[in-house]
Amino acid sequence: MSTPIINEQRPEQEAMKRKAQLEQENAAKCSLGKVQSFTEREKEMEMSKYCGCAV
C-alpha cells in the first residue's frame, strides 16, 4: 500500500510534475512541427509539378 506524501516532499513532487508536463508539451510541439513541414513540402511539390518549376 502506498504512503501519502509528506509536506517536505510536496515541492519536489510538484517540480517533477511540472517537468513531466513540459516534456510532454515539447514532444507534442516537435511532432506537430514535423507533420506540418512535411505537409507544406508536399504542397510545394504539387505546385511545382503543376507549374513546371523545380523546388
TrEMBL record:
InterPro entries in UniProt: C2orf78-like (IPR040292)
* Record's compositionally biased regions (Basic and acidic residues): 9-21
Chain spans, region Disordered: 1-21
Which PANTHER family does UniProt cross-reference here?
A: GENE 5591-RELATED (PTHR31466), RIKEN CDNA 4930433I11 GENE (PTHR31466:SF1)
UniProt-recorded name of the protein: Uncharacterized protein
Query: Where does this protein come from, organism-wise?
Result: Myotis brandtii
